[in-house]
Design goal:
22-stranded antiparallel barrel; single chain; about 5% helix; 52 strands
């Protein structure tokens, strides 16, 4: 472990020079031609395909959607036939040839952008000069890193399994993968050098929206937690505040902390999002669990990371505390060790049934010190663990019917210390488990998919005591006067989902081509908050004498103990449970209309939920123009509305406070006063659903060996939930939250690899610029932030708070550059991720006032600027063949290789630095 003291770092010239050098080297590989000759211009058009092995009918339907070709003859000709699928970029003719290989079918051209299937006769051409294909041999999958990006359209980024395996992702959590996406932003505190021991995954923001307003989908099911996701961050101490009882902090919108080893694909929908998706104002993160593809395999991995391999950077004033880990709340973790283990198996059970499973555990153990109320310095070792168990069973019943069963379990649990005074320990957990069944049936001209799922998300607190007390008499002997812990809390959300999606094959209506889709999603949610036992607090006072000296011996027995005290305050949070049952019904319809070079996507979504009792209508419109008819230049414009989520916390905060009764006593034991907060209903707030209106403009351009997408997105968000006080001084929720974000992103990806000395290098470049304003000026309170409509003085003008720079998730300029080099002869893969992040600005209250011309007094806000940061993460993977069916696995990853750090503190009272250089090693075996 290396510890370096810093005041502020801005030495970025050397890292920048290296980043530019790496960029120039890798972009050289983008200058290769790669278009195959075809029978016609139509069949020579190159597209990206990700078509799974399975029934030929379904594969050809997907091929038609991806290529823009119309295929007839899909009835009896394809019945009962299978295909090996297709992954990668191909000319349309070659792709169709590969899909039909071994089926006994050929095809002939039947007009512009149309082909007809027919039985194969022989290789060559028939008497009508129509193309008849001979059998071909299917080669190994040509799936490439970055090859699927943009496959889903201008607002979708797709990361296939090879991308997931190649990109340096640090801890290997789902949101770690998304760091290469220019539309995804992270908190400034997401990579803190003083909390390296934590296992909590990062949260993300998309286009300036609240991090808790994203939808997380696994295998088509919305698994997002709506308990208390806005209260993010770790909680190694003070897990609740008994005097102001509320929901548990440290929750997350991610019900499942997913291990990337369990996934075969991840899609990020950030703009022009289909009407099929709802429940977000930011974006949609859609994960797909691994499916059996015909090859049995088992992969075992073990990895380790240690403080001995990390360079820490701390302020000089904090160096001693840091070295001693002198922070009971987990903010200092210089002494830690992380380990991870995973097992992934793919197994064929019968000719048409396959199964997959991923089992993993990631652990961290780190040391802390704290000084209790008796001035005693004690060590405490925290344990932080994430367990994962996820997998699927998939059956192809026949060429029309597919069945699937998925299961998912993830649990993060860690221990903690109640406080430096109340020294009882606790264990806190964030857990999700679920089961899903799905059926996909292919009619002659359409596809129907039905899903039934159950998911449970829970946050729990288990303490070793539900009683905490203060005895001042203990001070006489220098013993701790405080003891106990804050009891137990359970908060849980059980969700039952029934989902139906229908998609019609493309049909021709006059000059227009239509692809209709529709669906519904019915969800029933049973959420509750529970205190399984009373939480009791006893505060005693001295009958005579001072508490600091330990009370006088009032009864003259020669001992200073509880008999020399009287009970001053007794408070109890009574064991209780509050349940909220509510439903959500969503309906959508969408039509993708093609007319020549134009394509219009028109969709409408309706969401009705009974928690806030709102009906929300979301129109979605997107227009594309294929300028030359070959997908080489495509212009896009879109306008959409997205409605966000509502949370259980809105409904229960006041109810929880009503469970608490506090009684104050006189020294003679008589009651002085009793207090209890009243219970109020959520309906008193009359809340509207938060929403975001989007305007998107963009262009995609194929420039020979590269593909580029330039996009502008504006988000105007309204009706965000915040708090204010009524005339009685009580909090209540309002819809005063507002934000405005303008963002420009440029993404450039290689379509072909640089072939150099037996190696293949591919690259992805993302550049983002963003300006975001918001009246939410805290990254901790979220929807419990207190709203004020008072003006403030900023940059020489009186403004309202929604004109201030967004407090967090507001990096104004980023450059994200990734390269992956494969050396097949050495079984080696070398990956790099360069991240340039501008510092940006946050506005803070200076503590001074400005007197306006009207005589009013206004808080003065001033800028707090941050330094720019450049990091380089690198990963080496070596997969040597050991025996005929065995493959070794060795991986070395170094994050922030250049060891550049910056101060991310938001106040002068504390100093916080980004993480320094750190390394991890992973070994494994595949057979």
């Amino acid at each position: 472990m290396t510890v370096t003291s810093h005041r502020r770092s801005c030495a970025v010239l050397k890292p920048l020079a290296l980043a530019i050098h790496l960029g120039c080297l890798s972009l050289t590989g983008l200058a290769l031609p790669a278009f195959a000759e075809a029978e016609s211009a139509m069949l020579g058009q190159v597209h990206q395909y990700a078509i799974a092995a399975g029934p030929l009918n379904a594969a050809l339907n997907q091929f038609a959607r991806d290529s823009g070709l119309y295929i007839s003859g899909l009835g009896e000709l394809t019945q009962g036939k299978q295909t090996a699928g297709l992954q990668g970029r191909y000319a349309a003719g070659e792709a169709l040839q590969r899909l039909l290989a071994g089926s006994g079918l050929g095809y002939r051209l039947s007009g512009e952008r149309a082909v007809v299937l027919q039985p194969r006769i022989q290789s060559g051409r028939d008497e009508n000069n129509d193309l008849i294909l001979a059998p071909v041999t299917i080669e190994a999958s040509s799936e490439t890193v970055f090859g699927d990006n943009g496959e889903g359209g201008m607002g979708v980024s797709v990361y296939n399994q090879k991308t997931i395996e190649a990109i340096p992702t640090g801890a290997g959590n789902l949101t770690d993968l998304l760091q290469i996406n220019p539309a995804v932003d992270y908190s400034r505190s997401s990579s803190n050098s003083a909390s390296s021991g934590s296992m909590r995954p990062d949260e993300i923001s998309i286009h300036g929206q609240a991090f808790y307003q994203n939808a997380f989908i696994i295998d088509g099911i919305d698994t997002t937690s709506d308990l208390n996701p806005g209260s993010g961050g770790d909680t190694y101490s003070n897990p609740i505040t008994p005097t102001n009882l509320s929901m548990l902090g440290g929750s997350s919108p991610q019900s499942y902390y997913v291990d990337l080893d369990a996934l075969e694909m991840v899609k990020v929908h950030d703009s022009n999002i289909s009407a099929a998706y709802g429940g977000f104002t930011g974006g949609v993160v859609e994960a797909r669990l691994k499916r059996y593809s015909g090859e049995d395999s088992v992969s075992i991995k073990y990895g380790m990371q240690s403080d001995a391999w990390e360079s820490f950077h701390v302020a000089a004033d904090d160096e001693e505390d840091f070295s001693n880990a002198d922070s009971y709340d987990g903010s200092f973790t210089p002494d830690y060790r992380k380990q991870n283990f995973s097992l992934t198996a793919l197994q064929g059970i019968s000719d048409n049934l396959g199964a997959t499973v991923t089992l993993s555990r990631r652990t961290s153990r780190f040391r802390q010190q704290y000084e209790n109320a008796a001035d005693e310095v004690r060590d405490i070792y925290y344990n932080d663990t994430i367990d994962n168990l996820m997998g699927r069973f998939d059956m192809a019943v026949n060429d029309r019917l597919d069945l699937g069963l998925s299961y998912r379990y993830a649990n993060r649990y860690h221990d903690g210390l109640t406080s430096s005074t109340y020294d009882g320990t606790f264990e806190k957990a964030h857990q999700g488990y679920g089961l899903g069944a799905e059926m996909a049936y292919r009619f002659d001209q359409s596809k129907l998919q039905m899903q039934l799922a159950f998911d449970s998300a829970a946050d729990t607190l288990k303490s070793d005591s539900a009683t905490f007390a203060y005895h001042p008499s203990a001070n006489y002997y220098g013993s701790p006067a405080y003891a106990g812990a804050y009891g137990d809390v359970n908060q849980q959300q059980d969700t039952y989902t029934f989902k139906v999606d229908w998609q019609r094959d493309a049909i021709q209506w006059g000059p227009t081509r239509h692809q209709l889709s529709a669906g519904s999603n019915l969800r029933y949610i049973n959420a509750y908050y529970e205190l399984p036992r009373d939480i009791e607090s006893y505060v005693y006072s001295c009958i005579s004498g001072s508490a600091a000296s330990g009370c006088n011996d009032s009864n003259g027995d020669g001992v200073h103990d509880s008999s020399d005290e009287y009970l001053r305050t007794y408070a109890v949070n009574q064991a209780n449970q509050l349940s909220k049952e509510y439903g959500q019904l969503s309906l959508y319809v969408q039509d993708d209309i093609s007319l020549g070079k134009w394509q219009l996507t028109a969709g409408l979504r309706a969401d009705q939920e009974t928690l806030l009792d709102n009906l929300d209508l979301s129109p979605r419109l997107a227009l594309q123009w294929d300028a030359f008819g070959d997908k080489s230049t495509v212009l896009m414009a879109g306008a959409s509305r997205y409605y966000g989520r509502s949370f259980l916390r809105y409904a229960i905060n006041d109810t929880l406070r009503s469970w608490r009764t506090s009684t104050t006593y006189n020294s003679d034991g008589s009651v002085r006063s009793t207090s209890q907060t009243s219970d109020r209903s959520l309906q008193d707030y009359n809340l509207r659903t938060p929403y975001s209106d989007e305007l998107a403009l963009g262009i995609t351009q194929q420039l020979g060996p590269v593909a580029a997408t330039l996009k502008y997105v504006n988000r105007e968000s309204r009706d965000g939930v915040q708090r204010t006080r009524d005339d009685d001084g009580l909090y209540y929720y309002t819809n005063e939250g507002r934000s405005s974000t303008d963002e420009i992103t440029l993404e450039v990806s290689s379509r072909d690899a640089l072939q150099l000395w037996g190696s293949q290098t591919r690259a992805l470049l993302g550049i983002g610029w963003k300006q975001s304003e918001s009246n939410a000026q805290s990254s901790e309170d979220s929807y419990d932030e207190t709203y004020t409509d008072e003006q403030i003085y900023y940059h020489g003008n009186l403004i309202y708070s929604d004109q201030l720079p967004a407090w967090d998730y507001n990096i104004p300029f980023t450059v994200k550059f990734s390269t992956v080099t494969e050396i097949p002869g050495w079984h080696l893969t070398w990956s790099n991720f360069v991240n340039l992040r501008s510092g940006g600005t946050t506005a803070v209250d200076s503590g001074e006032d400005y007197t306006g011309s009207d005589g009013g007094s206004y808080d003065i806000y001033e800028d707090r600027n941050f330094d720019d940061l450049i990091t380089l993460d690198t990963r080496f993977q070596w997969r040597p063949p050991l025996f005929s069916k065995y493959e070794g696995y060795v991986q070395l990853e170094v994050n922030n290789l250049l060891d550049d750090v910056v101060d991310t503190s938001t106040s002068n009272s504390s100093t916080s630095y980004t993480a320094g250089r750190r390394a991890s090693v992973e070994v494994g075996l595949r057979f």
